[in-house]
Each structure stands twice: as structure tokens, then as C-alpha cells.
Amino acid sequence: MNGRLVGVDLARTLALLGMFAAHLAEQEGAGPGGVSPLFQVVAGRSSALFAVLAGVSLVLAAPREAVLADPGAYRRRILVRSSLVGGLGLVLGTPSSGIAVILTYYGVLFCSALPVLSWRARPLALLALAWGVASPVASLLLRPLLPDPTLAVPSLTTLLTQPVQLLGELLVTGYYPVLTWATYLFAGMAVGRVLQARGDGARVTRPLVLAGGGLAVLALAASALLTRTEQVRTSLLASVGLGPGDWALLDHERRLGFYGVFPEGSAWWLGVWAPHSGSVVDLAHTTGSALLVLGCCLVLVRTLTALPWPLLAGAGRATLTLYSAHVILLATPLGDEGVFARHTSTGLLAHSLVALLVGAALVAGHRRGPLEALVGGVVSSIRPTSAPGAPSSPR
């Protein structure tokens, strides 16, 4: 197996475990703002890492030369993948699991790659940068024109009963709005093009780690400096109906995170870090942290060659299957009591261990996850007419 892909699988495994922690770990705790340290680490960052890796995988499955040779076939592949993943998300969102299922948003998000699928790394990186600055501003301007979000998980029910509302939430006002989340996809696509062209040597991974880490730190520092200003605090508090003495309460809520978008009442929110807020600083920080994690994973796989990385990162090859099983499990009584129960340390440990063991078993048996095999089989049936050497899958 290609070491570059094992590094991506390792990063995807960490993203999966991070999302488990975001769903299952206690939110309140002894960390800053009264929020548990574990939750503060994973909230917002894990799902962003997934989205960046989706962009990486998308272009690894579509070499630029092959796309240029037959763009229609590769775009049809993305549309089919989008439909299958989005449809699965609607099914998983129908029973009550207590999770804001991300897959339907992903299905729509994939479509944003269609116009730029053949782009080189540098234009994609510049697009991600511009989109990360412009899309939060666009969100701030558009949301007052749209109905308030219902906070309903996309499901077959919402598709049938509130299709227009659902579309607005998928694109602008929902948990993972495509308007702002396209930033992650474009950034991941840029990284994927670099990996295709230059491999995963130090000349690629070192800038990835340094740039990602630097961006993440600078974004947090900018937010911290901004929110120390009394004028800014007063504006932020007023935007959510709180008074001057309520900063500790707002800081607590901010650290827990929002529901996909930041409050509309103050433009200062654009420069404030909060998980799942979609602010400029949020997009910058989480994109940076995703690049940092991916770079570190590529370095680990390349340097610590004695470790059985394919087995350790096996869950990253079956994230669609394992995430779906995780959601289904939490929609059953097992999600509320017993070894898999949410908001317990044993529940988080159980979900994580099962995912790691299943992933290792699939790798050892040279198998893919059932859902990965299904989606991959359908997508691979759309064969390019002339794509020399193009793989049908990133794995």
C-alpha cells in the first residue's frame, strides 16, 4: 500500500475518533471556560479535518491529466458519489440519534468541486484562501434574507416536508453549511494536487506542518486579542441579548460551539474563534489544524516504518461504514445505557476500540468497508473513455 495513502488513512482515523469524542465525551469540565479539555480539542476540528481529507481523497481519485482527458466521466463520478453519500445521510438522519449527521452536507459539498476539479494546486490554494475570507462575510449578509434554521438533522422527513428549508440549511444556515465548508474542500484539493505532483517527502510535509500549525496559532491569537477589547465584548454580548457582566457566560457558550453559523448581530463575530461558527477565524484555525494533523501523519508513516501503520490506520479506510454504524448505534437504546452509552468514558472507549479493531480486521483481510465497497463499486462503474493510468479509487 502506498505510504502516502496510509498517512491520509491515519489522519482520517484520527478525525473519526475525534468525532466520536465530540459526540460522546462530557462537554462540561475543568478546562478554560468550564468546558472539558478533551471536548475543546476535538470540537470543530475533527469534522473540519474530515472535510479537508475529503478534498484530498477527491483529487487523489482524479489525477489532473485524467480529468482533462475525460472531464465528463470524472464529474459524473462525483455526482454519483454525492448522491449516494447524501442519500445515506438522509436515511441516517431519519431516526433520532442525537447527532447532527454530516453526510447529506457532504453530498452537496462534493458538488462544489465540479468546476475546479482540473485545477492545479496553487489556484486551488488561492481559492481556498479567498473563500475562507469571503464566505463568512457572504453568510453574514445572506442569513437575514433566509428563514431561521430549524436545527433539524437532514432526513427523509425534512426532504419531503420542508425541501426549500432543507436546501437553505444545507447551503447557508445549517450545521455544516456548504457556503463556508467549501473552504475545507478546496484546501484539501490543493494539498491532494501537491501530493500527486511531489509525493510526501520532507519538502512537502515540512511546509504543510509549519503552515498549518502557524495558521492555527495565528487564528487563535487573533481571536484572543480581539475578544480582550471591551468594545468588541460589548458588541458580541449585545448581539445575543446579554449584558456587560455576562462575558463569562458567553465565553462558555462560545467554547462549547455554535450550530454551524455565528450570531448575526455583530460583524465582530467574523474574527472570533468558536467551534462550528463558520467565522473567518474559525475557518482559518480549523483548516490550519487539519493541515498540521495531516502533515504529522504523513511524517509519522514515512519515518516510523517499523510500526504496522496500515493496521493502525485501518479505520480510516472504512470511515463511511464506521461513522454510519456509530450513528445507528446511538439511535438505539444502546446509545443511552450500557457499554456504548454517550457521555461516558466507557462509551467513548468502546466506540473507538471497535472502530480500530474493525479497521484492522478489514486491512488484514484485504477488504474494504461494506459501504465503501458499495459506493466505490458504483462510482468505478463510470469508466473514463481515455484516462491513462488513472486509478478508480484513492485506495
TrEMBL record:
Q: What protein name is recorded for this chain? A: Membrane protein
Q: Which domain of life is it from?
A: Bacteria
* Lineage, highest ranks first: Bacteria, Bacillati, Actinomycetota, Actinomycetes, Micrococcales
The alphabetized UniProt keywords are: Membrane, Transmembrane, Transmembrane helix
Q: Which residues form the Heparan-alpha-glucosaminide N-acetyltransferase catalytic domain?
A: 4-198
Q: Which InterPro entries match?
A: HGSNAT_cat
The residues that cross the membrane are: 43-62, 175-195, 207-226
Q: Which Pfam family is an annotated match for this chain, by its short name?
A: HGSNAT_cat
